[in-house]
Design a protein that fits this description.
The chain has 466 residues and is an alpha/beta fold. The protein has 16 helices and 17 strands. Bound molecules: adenosine monophosphate and zinc ion.
Length: 466
C-alpha cells in the first residue's frame, strides 16, 4: 500500500519512498527549552508521533532525530533580540544550563504523558558545538559566509535560488521591507550563523572569531547532517518554520554540500485558542498541567488533535476539549464492551476495516477520517473480542493507550471528596464498627442524596460520584 505525504517543497502530495531500503531517516525541530511547552507546541509533537507511528505501521524502521534548542534561539526569527535561554535565566535568576535541564525534563515527561514516542536520538545543541563550528567554517571556505562586527552571516545572494520552500517573492519583500538596521549585512535576508557574544552572555565558546555562540538554524543543519547524513527522508516542524528557519537550513546545507538536506518537508498548521492566536500576553498559552487541572487528560488533548487534519488550523476551547475528554471515556467504555463481547465477526469484515484504516492513515495522515472508522467500530452493536483486538492494532497508530482503558476509567471515577462527604463517610465507618446498621443505612441514603454512592466490599467502603 502506498503512503502519500504532502511535501511543502514540491507543494503537492506524492508517494513516499525512503531513500535507502526500509529505513526512514527523519529530523524534527524540537523545543526551545526556556519555558514550559504549551498545547500549541504539543500539536506539533503529536503530529510528529503520528508520522512515526504511521511509518512503523507500514513496516518501516526509523532513524529519527529531534533536537533540543538550548542556545542561540533569539527572540525574533530575524536575528534580533536576546537569546531566549539567557533571558529566561536572568528572569529566573538561574544558570541557563539549569533552565535548560529543568524544562527539558518537563518537556520529556509531558511527551510521555501524551504517549508520544521518543525519537531514536534526542540531540542538544550545546553538545554539538564542534559540529556546528565545522559547518560554519566550511561555509566560510566555500564563500557562502562572511564576518561582520556582530558575527558570521550567510550570504543568500550566492545561492541559485532563495527562498525555495516558501512562495514569497523575495524581491518584492525586500522592496517593501522596513529599512534593515544592520548595514554590515550584504543582503537584508542574510542571516546569522554564528554570533559574537557580548561580555554578559553566559553561554559562549572559543571560535576563530572569539568567544561566541551558534545561531539557531545552524544547529539543525549540523545535527541533522551528523546523525542522518547529507540527505535524508523527512524534515518536520510547524508552519512558522517555513519562511525562515527551514529556508535557512536549506540555504546552509546547499552552501556546504550542494544538496537540500531532506526530500520531504512536512509542516503542521497552528493550534489556535478561542479562534485567535496563542500568546503569553493573552494568557492563553496553556500547558498540559493547566488542562489537567480542568479535568482534561493529556490523552484527551491528543484525541482532540485528531479532530482536524494536521494541515488545517485547529481551534482549542475548553468546552470542546471537555467534550473530547468525555468522548475519550466513551471510547474506553466502548473498547471494554467489545473486549467482553462474544459475537464472531467474519474475517472479511475485519479485513475490510483494516484496509480502510490503512488507506486513511496513508492518505497524508488523515486522522479525522481514521477516527471516524474507530468510532464506527466502537458503536457497532455486535460486541466482539475481534473488534477489541482490531482497536488495539489501530492504537499502534493512535497511541491512546487503549489497552489500559479499565485503569483510566477507574481513575476517573475516583474523586477528590469534599470535606462534608469525607466526614459522613467517617461517621458511617464508625457506625458500622459499632454495628449500628440503621445509622449506617441512614448515612448511605444521605450520601446518595448528595450525589455519592457507597458500596461495602470485602476490602472496605468504596465511594463513587453518581
Ligand atoms: P519552539 O519551542 O518555540 O521552538 O516551538 C516548538 C514547536 O512548536 C515548533 O515546531 C513550532 O512550529 C511549534 N508551534 C509553536 N506554536 C504552535 C502552535 N500554536 N500550533 C502548532 N505548533 C506550534
Ligand atoms: Zn530546527
Amino acid at each position: 500500500m502506498s503512503v502519500q505525504f504532502y511535501n511543502t517543497l514540491t507543494r503537492d502530495k506524492g508517494e513516499f519512498k525512503p531513500l535507502e531500503g526500509n529505513q526512514v531517516r527523519i529530523y524534527s525541530c524540537g523545543p526551545t527549552v526556556y519555558s514550559y511547552a504549551h498545547i500549541g507546541n504539543f500539536r506539533a509533537y503529536v503530529f510528529m508521533d503520528t508520522l512515526r507511528r504511521v511509518l512503523q505501521y507500514n513496516g518501516y524502521e526509523l532513524n529519527h532525530v529531534m533536537n533540543i534548542t538550548d542556545v542561540g534561539h533569539l527572540e525574533s526569527d530575524a536575528d534580533e533580540g536576546e537569546d531566549k535561554m539567557e533571558k529566561a535565566a536572568r528572569k529566573e535568576n538561574k544558570d541557563p544550563y539549569e533552565i535548560a535541564k529543568y524544562y527539558t525534563e518537563v518537556f520529556l515527561r509531558d511527551m510521555d504523558r501524551l504517549h508520544i514516542q521518543r525519537p531514536e536520538t534526542i540531540a542538544k545543541a550545546t553538545e554539538h558545538i564542534n559540529e556546528m563550528l565545522e559547518f560554519v567554517q566550511g561555509l566560510m571556505k566555500n564563500g557562502y559566509a562572511y564576518e561582520t562586527s556582530r558575527g558570521i552571516y550567510f550570504d543568500i545572494s550566492k545561492l541559485d535560488k532563495y527562498p525555495v520552500l516558501s512562495n514569497r517573492n523575495i524581491d518584492e519583500q525586500i522592496a517593501g521591507a522596513r529599512v534593515d538596521v544592520d548595514e554590515e549585512k550584504r543582503n537584508p535576508y542574510d542571516f546569522a550563523l554564528w554570533i559574537k557574544a557580548p561580555e554578559t552572555h553566559i553561554m559562549k565558546w572559543e571560535s576563530p572569531w572569539g568567544l561566541s555562540y551558534p545561531g539557531w538554524h545552524i544547529e539543525c543543519s549540523a545535527m541533522g547532517r551528523k546523525y542522518l547524513g547529507d540527505e535524508f527522508d523527512i524534515h518536520t516542524g510547524g508552519i512558522d518554520h517555513i519562511p525562515t528557519h527551514h529556508e535557512n537550513e536549506i540555504a546552509q546545507s546547499k552552501g556546504l554540500t550542494g544538496k537540500i538536506p531532506a526530500k520531504a518537508w512536512m509542516h503542521v498548521e497552528f493550534l489556535q485558542v478561542d479562534g485567535g492566536k496563542m500568546s503569553k500576553s493573552l494568557g492563553n498559552t496553556y500547558t498540559l498541567d493547566q488542562l489537567q487541572e480542568k479535568g482534561i487528560e493529556p490523552l484527551a488533548y491528543k484525541l482532540f488533535c485528531f479532530t482536524a487534519h494536521y494541515r488545517t488550523k485547529l481551534n482549542f476551547t475548553f468546552d470542546t476539549a471537555l467534550s473530547t475528554q468525555k468522548a475519550l471515556n466513551r471510547l474506553r467504555e466502548g473498547f471494554l464492551k467489545h473486549q467482553e463481547g462474544t459475537i464472531d465477526i467474519s474475517n472479511e469484515k475485519i479485513k475490510e476495516y483494516e484496509d480502510k484504516f490503512l488507506a486513511t492513515i496513508n492518505d497524508d495522515l488523515n486522522m479525522p477520517a481514521a477516527m471516524g472508522l474507530v468510532w464506527e467500530i466502537i458503536r457497532n452493536q455486535e460486541k466482539s473480542k475481534q473488534y477489541a483486538e482490531l482497536l488495539v492494532k489501530f492504537d499502534q497508530v493512535l497511541g491512546l493507550d487503549l489497552v489500559n482503558s479499565k485503569q483510566y476509567l477507574e481513575q476517573a471515577k475516583k474523586v477528590d471528596l469534599p470535606e462534608e462527604i469525607a466526614e459522613l463517610l467517617e461517621k458511617r465507618k464508625q457506625a458500622r464498627e459499632n454495628k449500628d446498621w440503621a445509622m449506617s443505612d441512614q448515612i448511605r441514603d444521605e450520601l446518595k442524596e448528595k450525589g455519592y454512592s457507597v458500596k461495602d466490599t470485602k476490602e472496605g467502603m468504596t465511594v463513587e460520584k453518581i
